[in-house]
Design brief:
Layout (H helix, E strand, L loop, with lengths): L1 H10 L1 E3 L3 E3 L10 H15 L6 E5 L3 H12 L3 E7 L8 E7 L6 E7 L8 E9 L3 H13 L2 E11 L4 H7 L4 E10 L4 E3 L2
Parallel strand pairs: 3-4, 3-7, 7-8, 8-9
Antiparallel strand pairs: 1-2, 4-6, 5-6, 9-10
Helix pairs in contact: 2-3
Bound molecules: guanosine-5'-monophosphate.
């Protein structure tokens, strides 16, 4: 998505640990116009797939999921992060290692809100090694729901998570795929 790629080139910042900061427009300060275009683009790619629920993980996926939900007319369910595994039995749970913080969180959704009749689209801001998406897929599988695919704003292609998912048959649509990045250059997959 050209608009997103241009914005990453203009305002994205590369930090140590292969972290791309997009805090100035996507996941801290949010450019609502860009967010709306991201939502529209996700909707265009999945509008024929009968999505009944959009699943993301708190916190930075929520805004993007809501932007997509507006056009797909499906509700957003966000997995909550809990530092303990001692949570209510009425939840589906999965363990996810955080890319940016290094700790392991239990992510959970209430069983009431995800069922075997759902067709679920996963949405997130970043895809790196794929831990967050794998955790969300586990929640979908526990519910017996159908995974429609994953819509990601920014995939860091060089970290392999997206291609491994595609190889295993998951439909992954990323609006910008970063193929390499360093302090002074960043390239996208074409
Ligand atoms: P993964 O689980 O695929 O390794 O990493 C994806 C998750 O880690 C996303 O939910 C995102 O919040 C975070 N993340 C991974 N890489 C980056 C990055 O370069 N920048 C930011 N801001 N978040 C990232």
């Amino acid at each position: 998505m050209q608009l997103l790629e241009e914005r990453i080139l203009r305002d994205g910042k590369v930090y140590p640990g292969q972290v791309l900061k997009v805090s100035g427009f996507l996941n801290h300060l949010i450019d609502e116009n860009l967010l709306d275009e991201v939502g529209k683009e996700i909707s265009a790619r999945f509008s024929e797939d009968g999505v009944t629920k959009i699943l993301t993980v708190e916190a930075s996926g929520i805004a993007i999921a809501c932007a997509a939900a507006h056009y797909l007319h499906a509700p957003v369910l966000f997995a909550k992060k809990s530092k303990t595994s001692n949570v209510s039995d009425n939840c589906y749970k999965a363990e996810v290692k955080s890319y940016t913080h290094g700790n392991v969180n239990t992510v959970l959704v209430d069983k009431e809100f995800l069922s075997s009749s759902d067709r679920v689209l996963i949405v997130d801001d970043f895809l790196a090694h794929g831990a967050a998406v794998h955790g969300l897929i586990s929640l979908i599988e526990q519910a017996g729901a159908c995974l429609v695919g994953c819509a990601i704003a920014i995939e860091k292609g060089f970290q392999g998570g997206g291609d491994a998912l595609r190889k295993s048959g998951v439909r992954v649509e990323s609006l910008a795929i970063v193929d390499s990045m360093s302090d002074d250059s960043l390239t996208f997959r074409k």
